[in-house]
UniProtKB/TrEMBL annotation:
This is LapA family protein. InterPro entries: LapA_dom. Residues 25-86 form the Lipopolysaccharide assembly protein A domain. Keywords: Cell membrane, Coiled coil, Membrane, Transmembrane, Transmembrane helix. It comes from the Bacteria. Residues 66-100 form a coiled coil. The chain crosses the membrane at residues 7-24, 44-68.
């Protein structure tokens, strides 16, 4: 987990650095027309805003999947806990039965076994 966090930080730093280089190398202004609004903005700023909008839209679209996965994980953890409890209960019963078997075997081996025949 720690390794993944470091890798994500490195990737984020690289992307931020490349974005800064891009912004500094593209100071040209472009005309923007949106519905009735018109204006000019630096090309780099427009592209960074577009990229950020795409990331935000992607995250919003991923939210239902993330909730579904978290719900599924919680359900599986609950089921796992129930199965572990059933396993421990069965293990305890088996150990109890094994002790009983050993007890009975020891009594059978130690007892004087004298069968009597009724005539």
């Amino acid at each position: 987990m720690q390794r993944q966090v470091h890798a994500l930080l490195i990737v984020g730093f690289i992307i931020a650095s490349l974005t800064l280089i891009f912004v500094l190398q593209n100071p040209d202004y472009v005309a923007i027309n949106f519905i009735t609004w018109e204006g000019e903005t630096p090309l780099a700023l427009l592209l960074v805003i577009t990229l950020a909008s795409g990331v935000i839209i992607g995250l919003i679209c991923a939210i239902p999947t993330l909730f579904a996965k978290n719900t599924q994980i919680a359900r599986q953890k609950r089921e796992n806990k129930e199965i572990q409890e059933q396993f421990l209960e069965a293990k305890t019963k088996i150990e109890s039965q094994e002790k009983r078997i050993k007890y009975l075997e020891s009594h059978l081996n130690n007892a004087d076994f004298n069968p009597t025949l009724d005539s």
